[in-house]
Write a structure and sequence with these properties.
- This protein is an all-alpha fold and 129 residues long.
- It contains three helices and no strands.
- Helix 1 packs across helix 3 and helix 2 runs antiparallel to helix 3.
């Protein structure tokens, strides 16, 4: 699905030489492509975390896994250092994503909670159950 937007949207038009603006627009085009990739990657990631949420809900596992979360934060901080990105930014970014995932997992757990059924009556005693 394509949405119309102006890739040259800027409040800088008329304030700088056109060659400079063209270079700026070219760089921003690359940023726009990366942003689009990030959105699609996040959507794909959330498809998998939704599967995790349904699995946890079916087996009455808690929405949050602090051990996993801590390990992931450490892992992303290491990756950030390797990529010359501030590890603190990577941690903030992942914490934001984790908070969303936990919110989704709680909602899934509520939606998929087993419905309490009335106790069945039978002539069978406890030893027969």
């Amino acid at each position: 699905m394509s949405h119309d937007y102006d890739p040259h949207a800027s409040s800088l038009a008329g304030t700088a030489d056109q060659d400079i603006l063209e270079e700026l627009y070219e760089i921003r085009g690359s940023i726009d492509n990366i942003d689009a990739s990030l959105v699609y990657l996040l959507a794909e990631r959330f498809k998998f975390t939704q599967r995790v949420g349904r699995l946890k809900a079916r087996h009455a596992l808690p929405p949050s896994d602090p051990g996993r979360e801590a390990a992931q934060i450490e892992r992303l901080q290491d990756l950030a250092r390797d990529a010359d990105l501030e590890p603190e930014f990577a941690e903030k970014f992942l914490n934001f994503i984790i908070a969303e995932v936990i919110r989704h997992h709680r909602a899934i757990a509520e939606d998929e909670a087993p419905v309490a059924r009335p106790a069945e009556t039978s002539d069978a005693g406890p030893a027969d159950a």
